Amino acid sequence: MIVLNVMIVIFLIVAALAIERTKDLLSAVIIFSVYSLMMSVLWLILKTPDVALTEAAIGAGVTSILFIAVISRTQRYEK
């Protein structure tokens, strides 16, 4: 069980670095959604189902939808 926790934490660190490094906003939102889902899995493993459910609903669900809605309303300036 500890090995799984360590693997998830390492994945979360890599995902956070990938979010910071990526240039495409939509890619960053998708990575952020995966980050939130993995964070909710970690909360579930740590036996806090209420926090896991909140993280999955708000972090991965509502926030991602709002980010994608905002990105769809912006224009892309590529050179």
Portion in beta strands: under 5%
What is the number of independent domains? 1
User: Spans with pLDDT under 50 lasting ≥5 residues?
Assistant: none
* Helix/strand order: HHH
Mean pLDDT: 92
Could you describe the largest sheet, including whether it forms a barrel?
none
Question: What's the total number of strands?
Answer: 0
Shape: flat
Helix proportion: over 70%
Alpha carbon gap, first and last residue = 48 Å
- Total of DSSP H or I helical runs spanning 4+ residues: 3
> Over the alpha carbons, how many angstroms does the gyration radius reach?
14 Å
Secondary-structure-derived class? mainly alpha
Topology:
Blueprint: H1 2-21, H2 25-45, H3 49-72
Helix pairs in contact: 1-2, 2-3
Features:
3 helices, mainly alpha, flat
Walk me through the structure.
The chain is an all-alpha fold and 79 residues long. It has one domain. It is 82% helix and 0% strand. The chain has 3 helices and no strands. The protein has helices at residues 2-21, 25-45, 49-72. Helix 1 (2-21) runs antiparallel to helix 2 (25-45). The chain is flat, with a radius of gyration of 14 Å. The protein starts with a helix and ends in a 7-residue tail after the last helix. The model has no long low-confidence stretch (mean pLDDT 92).
